[in-house]
Design a protein that fits this description.
Keywords: 4Fe-4S, DNA damage, DNA repair, Hydrolase, Iron, Iron-sulfur, Metal-binding. Belongs to the uracil-DNA glycosylase (UDG) superfamily. Type 4 (UDGa) family. It comes from Devosia neptuniae. The protein has about 240 residues and is of the alpha/beta class. It has one domain: Uracil-DNA Glycosylase, subunit E, CATH 3.40.470. It has ten helices and nine strands.
Length: about 240
């Protein structure tokens, strides 16, 4: 496969002009731009990408949306080149952003435990996110997660599509609404799609379920146990759908 890599130039905002009516209007228009408009304006040069390794290296300097400006680094996916199953989350969290590795925080631990319990071979699993930069709002010394918007999801879909094209997984699991939106190209309701395999045009089977971080946010122990059991039940369906060697 050959992909054309958009290399975005830095997103330089204009300096504040003298306070004339025209200058004020121009500044307001610039501030009101969406992620889609910003991405379209920074038309990049094109470079060929012919392997997953090249895609990973190129993503390190991605400027396709403004999230790169405050994130520590790009967090690309990890796993074997011939992975049978690909799990797609929303975005890296605080720990992942600092370490540069996906699913190493509390949600990753929940996922690993469920994968092991349901008999999915973790050595044949590739994990990644729909958005490769951490989106957050600072609160003192903490960085609080913020959900990516539609423009940011679309901007990063370039990288996710490359991962899928090079790895060619048999099963793709969308963990949460952001991953499902990226993979399906539209906003969806997780509850309506859970447990129902979806055949993709590339031949892979897509499953949609909750993100494991959702389980961590449930305060009632009984509710948490019930939802965790359902999550594991859905991963068992994924295990059953994996083709035999």
């Amino acid at each position: 496969m050959v992909a054309l890599l958009p290399r975005g130039k830095p997103l330089n905002r204009p300096a504040v002009a003298p306070a004339t009516p025209a200058a004020c209007a121009a500044l307001l228009n610039e501030q009101a731009k969406t992620s889609e408009q910003i991405m379209a304006e920074h038309s990049p040069a094109e470079t060929e990408i012919t392997s997953l390794a090249q895609a990973r290296a190129a993503a390190r300097s991605c400027t396709r949306c403004p999230l790169y400006e405050h994130a520590t680094q790009t967090v690309f996916g990890e796993g074997p080149r011939d992975a049978l199953v690909m799990f797609v989350g929303e975005q890296p969290g605080d720990k992942e952003d600092l370490a540069g590795k996906p699913f190493i925080g509390p949600a990753g631990k929940v996922l690993d435990e469920a994968v092991e319990k349901t008999g999915i071979d973790r050595r044949r699993v590739y994990v990644t996110n729909a958005v490769k930069h951490f989106k957050f709002v600072p609160r003192g010394k903490r960085r609080l997660h913020q959900r990516p918007d539609g423009g940011e999801i679309q901007a990063c879909k370039f990288w996710l599509e490359l991962e899928i094209a090079f790895i060619k997984p048999k099963i793709i699991v969308a963990l949460g609404a952001t991953a499902a939106r990226s993979l399906l190209g539209k906003t969806v309701t997780i509850g309506k799609l859970r447990g129902a395999p979806i055949k993709r045009d590339d031949g892979a089977t897509l499953f949609v379920t909750n993100h494991p971080s959702y389980l961590l946010r449930i305060r009632d122990k009984a509710d948490q146990a019930r939802e965790r059991a359902r999550f594991e039940e859905e991963l068992s369906m994924v295990r059953s759908a994996i083709p035999a060697p």
